[in-house]
Amino acid sequence: IQAAVMDGVNVEQNSIESVEESAAKSAFEKLQSDRKTLPIYPYREELLQAVHDHQVLVIVGETGSGKTTQIPQYLHEAGYSQRGKIGCTQPRRVAAMSVAARVSQEMGVKLGHEVGYSIRFEDCTSEKTIVKYMTDGMLLREFLGEPDLASYSVVMVDEAHERTLSTDILFGLVKDIARFRPDLKLLISSATLDAEKFSDYFDSAPIFKIPGRRFPVDIHYTKAPEADYLDAAVVTALQIHVTQPPGDGDILVFLTGQEEIEMAEEILKHRTRGLGTKIAELIICPIYANLPTELQAKIFEPTPEGARKVVLATNIAETSLTIDGIKYVIDPGFCKMKSYNPRTGMESLLVTPISKASANQRAGRSGRTGPGKCFRLYTAYNYYNDLDDNTIPEIQRTNLANVVLSLKSLGINDLLNFDFMDPPPSEALLKALELLYALSAVNKHGELTKAGRRMAEFPLDPMLSKMIVASDKYQCSDEIISIAAMLSIGNSIFYRPKDKQVHADNARLNFHMGNVGDHIALLKVYSSWKETNFSTQWCYENYIQVRSMKRARDIRDQLEGLLERVEIELTPNPNDMDSIKKAITSGFFPHSARLQKNGSYRTVKHPQTVQIHPSSGLAQVRPRWVIYHELVLTTKEYMRQVTELKPEWLVEIAPHYYQLKDVEDG
Ligand code: ADP
Ligand code: MG
C-alpha cells in the first residue's frame, strides 16, 4: 500500500518488491508452521529442561523426527548461543551442508552467517556463526587448535549410531573435556535404540526418547537371490512406477556408490524413454557424497502433480537425510564398506552385505508419512541367517594412522588406554604406530617428531602429509601440493562420453606423454589448466571435469596456506622430475611394487600380487619398479595412480625401512 501512494516510476518496482517480499514472508511462515508439525516439537520444553538439568544427554529419535534441524535451533532460541557456539557434527559432508542450508532458511538468515557449516576443505562460516554444522572429522581437527572447545557452549554429536571413526574418537575427547568444563552441554543423538550403550559410556547419562511416528511397512523379499541387484532394482522401480498410481508416493533406491547410481540413472532413462508418454513422468534424483551442491537440493523439491520421484541414494539416505514423500523403498542389501587388514596394512573399499540394523533403517524410510512398502532384493532366509545384527564400528576395520597422529598431536600418548567405546584391535594401533614411525612422524619412543607435528597440520592421510613435508627438502613444494590436491579429489578428473571415447582417450594420453606416470600427469593437467588462466573451455576441450578442477584449486589454495603455517616455502621446480618423484616416494615408499615375470606386480613389503589399474598411463608400459597411491579391489587388486621409481631411491629415502636386498633386481 505504501508503494502505491508513492509517486512515479518507482511504483511498479516497489510493488513487485512487495509481492516478492510477501511471497518470501509466507514461505518463511510456512517453514515455521512446518517446524511445529515435526515429532520433536511437542517435546521442545521437556527437552530444554533436560538439557538444563544434565550436562550430558543421550537423545534417541527416529530419522525425520527433527533432531538435527530442530535441537540446535531450540538451544539457540533458549539462549545457549549467547555463551558460545552450538556445534553439531555429522558423519557425512553432504548432510552437514544440506542440513545447514535448511536451518539457515528456517532461521531466515543467509547460509554462512549465523548458520554455517564446515567440511574438509570448505569452511562456510563467519565470525557471526552461532549454529555450526560440521563433519565429525572437522570437529576433531578443531581440537588441535582449541583443545577445550572453549568457543562452544553446546556440542551435539549427531548420528552417533553411525559409529564412524571420527565420531568414536570424539566420544573420548568430549567426555574428557566435559569433566573440566561443567558449562559445556553435550548431546549424543542417535536414530537407533541401542542408546543404552551410549548412556553407559557417558557415565549413565540420561536418555531422552522422542516418540516416533511410524506407519506400518510391508516387507517383501525375493524368492531367490538376485544375480544382478542393480538390474533388479531398476526393474522393481519401473514396476512400481507403472503399476501404482502416480502421486501415491515416491521411490527410494539404496545403491552402493556414485558409479552404480549413474549406471542406474542411465538405464532408467533409457527404459522410460522407450515407454514414451504411456507412463507418468519419472523424475530421477541421484544423491551421493560427491554430487555437486546445486544438484543436491533437487531431492528435496516437492514432486510435481502427476509425476513420481525416484531417489537413487547411497547409505546417506539411511539416516543422515530425510526425504519427505517416500512410500517405496528398494533395498538390494549392499553398501560400500571399508575393510582393513592390520597385518598387511592394506585398506580396501568393498561392496559388502548390510546389517539387519541397516536393513531395518532402510525399510523405515518408507513409513514416515503413511504406510510404506519395502522391497528387499534378497531372500528372507538371507536376512535372518546371513546378515549381521549390527554394522561393525569403523574403528575396528580401518587404518588408524591418521587418528593416531591427531591424538599424538593432542598430547594423548597412551593410546592403549584411551577411553574407547569399542577399542580398535591392538594390532591396528601398532600398525599405525609402525607406519608413523616409518614416516618419521614419531620417534622410537612413540613421541611426535618435528616432521610429525608438521604433518598433523594437514587434513590429509599421513602419507600425503609426509610427501608435502618432504617436498621442502626436494625444493618442489609448489608441484607437490598440486599433486596432493589432485589426488585428493579422487578419480573424477577425466570424463569419457560414450560417443567420444576415442577423443577423450587421446586428450588424456597427451598428459601422459613420455610415460611420466600418473602423478606427473595429474600435475600436468593442473599446470596446463592454470596456464590457461583456469579456463572452462580448456577443460571441455580436454575432457576434464571443470568442477573437479575447481575443487582441486580450492584444496590447493588451502594447502598453500598450511605450507606457510608449517614454515615451508612455496618453491616451484617444474623441470626436475626426479625431485618431484623423490618427494612422492618420501611419503609413499611403503607402497612400492616390483614387476614379476608373468607381468603382474608384487608389493615389496608384505608381498602381495597386484596389477596396474587399466586407467593408469603406465598400464601398458609396465615399468620394473613403481610406487602407487592406493590399492582398489575390484575383480583384482589394482594399484591406482602409479609412478615409476628407481629402486635405489627406496634405500636412499627410507634406509630404516628398506635394505639393499629388498630392492635388488633378479
Ligand atoms: P532427524 O535428524 O531427526 O532425522 P531432521 O531434523 O534431519 O530429522 O529432519 C526433519 C525434517 O526436516 C525432515 O522431515 C524434512 O522434512 C526436513 N528437512 C531436513 N533437511 C532438509 C533439507 N535439506 N531440505 C528440505 N527439508 C529438509
Ligand atoms: Mg538427523
TrEMBL record:
Alphabetical keyword list: ATP-binding, Coiled coil, Helicase, Hydrolase, mRNA processing, mRNA splicing, Nucleotide-binding, Spliceosome
GO terms (BP aspect): mRNA processing; RNA splicing
Any one Gene Ontology cellular component term annotated for this protein: catalytic step 2 spliceosome
Enzyme kind, highest EC tier: hydrolase
Enzymatic reactions: ATP + H2O = ADP + phosphate + H(+)
Coiled coil is among the record's keywords: yes
Keyword Hydrolase annotated: yes
Signal peptide annotation: none
Residue ranges of domain Helicase C-terminal in the record: 237-411
GO molecular function (one): hydrolase activity
Boundaries of every Helicase ATP-binding domain copy: 48-211
EC numbers on record: 3.6.4.13
Protein family per UniProt: Belongs to the DEAD box helicase family. DEAH subfamily. PRP2 sub-subfamily.
Name recorded for this polypeptide: RNA helicase
Organism: Dorcoceras hygrometricum
Part of the intact protein present: 364 to 1029 of 1029
